[in-house]
Amino acid sequence: MRKKNVVLTNIPVSDYAAEGKALAKVDGKVIFIEGGVMPGDVVDVRLSKSKKDWAEGKAVHIHSYSKDRVEPFCQHFGMCGGCKWQMVPYELQLKYKQQQVVDHLSRIGKMPLPPITPILGSKNTVNYRNKLEFTFSNRAYLTNEEIAAAGDGVIEHKPALGFHVPRLFDKVLNIDTCYLQAEPTNLIKNTLREYALANNLAFYDIRNHEGWLRNVIIRVLTTGEVMVNVVIHHEAKKQREALLDHLLAKVPSITTLLYTINPKKNDSIFDLEPKAYFGKGYAEEKLEDYTFKIGPKSFFQTNTYQGEALYQVTREFAGLTGNEVVYDLYCGTGSIGIFVSKQAKKVIGIELIKEAIDDAKENAERNNVTNATFYAGDVIDICDDAFFAAHGAPDVVITDPPRAGMHEKLVNKLLEIGAPKIVYVSCNPATQARDLALLHEKYTVEKIQPVDMFPHTHHIENVVLLIKR
Ligand SMILES: C[S@@+](CC[C@H](N)C(=O)[O-])C[C@H]1O[C@@H](n2cnc3c(N)ncnc32)[C@H](O)[C@@H]1O
Fold first, then answer.
1. pLDDT exceeds 90 at position 35
2. Would the CATH topology of 7-69 be identical to that of 94-124+303-468?
3. Is the pLDDT of residue 91 over 90?
4. Is the Cβ–Cβ distance between 455 and 128 less than 8 Å?
5. Residues contacting ligand 1 via CB (< 6 Å)
6. Is 44 within any annotated ligand binding site?
7. 94-124+303-468, superfamily in CATH?
8. What pTM was computed for the model?
9. How much is the ipTM here?
10. What is 131-283's CATH number, 3.30.540.10, 3.20.20.140, 3.90.209.20, 2.40.50.1070?
11. Which residues form the active site (predicted)?
12. Where are the domains of the chain?
């Protein structure tokens, strides 16, 4: 009998399952375990849910550690929500990710598969992100030791600049050194915090929606450019200028400094207008010889080196000879379409967000790409018979949907249109497997290449080539 709130003791963790949860089997029942454990650990698990065939819960005690464990390199490990797999050696992380792809495609996809090429590991396993966002909060997350130290006294809220603590919407963990992005990221963050504390600037209070400093979004690019956007709740000109001048003086490598006023309750800046305080107001990033404009609101692959590798795999799978009509579905800022444009006859990109399509057009122009056109709208609405008749039957469809995968209507349309090749780029092998199972009606999976974009996390990118039978 396995009930909710029951603690199972001495459970050997055997594997990782989807979404980075660890997995154990007890009396034939599958237990999903959260709480920083890895295969090889032996743990006690407090169940939070229990069904007939499976249960889930949190590790509350580790009896013995896996022999494979390595020392986490970050002082914030265990409290910060990022880089949760630091205790797993990188080679093993890759092994688990590879296995996830195999499991999903074979279990959900239920179709004959070719051998899956070994996952492409990331050249950089730290400092690999080109974009990072830190949050200011008047409520720092306090460790158990800090709470205990207060004894029976009142615990005062302290300001923090760092990352949200998982499941605690109002608590932010003060981050000293983060290894996700190259310098000057930590210098920028720590300079802002020190200045704000020294000058009594109000860190945002997300419960009462008051305060001044909200977020800082930092882009450190392989071109050497550094773009910083400081988000504040309301205008306070003198205070703002003093803060931004101080930051520029302390961090001379900043090439563009912006600020954004966000009086809303949520943190999204997509409906706001960032203003350039210093520099040209945007940055540039390179993939091979292509240059992309990165505005303060633009989407771009977060790991530049692996983004390039992902696009190279996509282009190789597309096998272009210069005569093909290529559709780039869910094209974002057009980066895949532009990347393959030299090898194609023409490229047609489709994306929901109008601003991303504006960027795509500008990116095509700045790279002298004249054979690509981009359309804003929902792929389901745009991809009708008239659109394909007007732009030409696709020789290759490249599709890169969000985590939810493709809408079934689009899958059906692709089956109807019957392009000779589909290259399916996915950030979620589970939904990809579901879509492949439907496409299997007319397509055979020819090649599979997983790519690791996010070391020390459970996230996986996977590229699949489908050939029409
Ligand atoms: C995983 S991103 C791919 C971006 C791009 N291919 C790249 O490599 O940068 C998925 C994109 O799909 C877009 N999207 C989501 N739903 C969509 C829809 N129904 N129709 C068109 N685009 C959509 C999102 O805005 C996002 O830009």
1. no
2. no
3. yes
4. yes
5. 299, 301, 330-332, 335-336, 350-353, 356, 378-379, 400-402, 427
6. no
7. Vaccinia Virus protein VP39 (3.40.50.150)
8. 0.93
9. 0.99
10. 2.40.50.1070
11. 427, 427 (nucleophile)
12. 7-69, 94-124+303-468, 131-283
Mean pLDDT, residues 51-62: 93
pLDDT tens-digit map of 248-275: 999 999 999 999 999 999 999 989 999 9
CATH number for domain 7-69, candidates 3.40.50.720, 2.60.200.20, 2.40.50.140, 2.60.40.1120: 2.40.50.140
CA-nearest residue for atom 13, ligand 1, is 330
pLDDT over 90 at 280, yes or no: yes
For residue 379, the ligand 1 atom closest to its alpha carbon is 20
Question: Given pLDDT bands bounded at 50, 70 and 90, which one contains residue 3?
Answer: low
CA-proximal residue: ligand 1, atom 19 (nearest): 378
- Residue 74 annotated among the catalytic residues of the structure: no
Residues forming a β-bridge with 256? 227
Answer yes or no: is 271 a known binding residue. no
- Taking the CA atoms of residue 243, residue 246, residue 252 and residue 254 in that order, the dihedral angle to the nearest 10 degrees is 0
What string of DSSP letters covers 347-403? Answer: EEEEES-HHHHHHHHHHHHHTT--SEEEEES-HHHH-SHHHHHHH---SEEEE---T
In whole angstroms, how large is the CA radius of gyration of the chain?
Answer: 24
CA distance 284 to 227: 10
pLDDT at 2 over 70: no
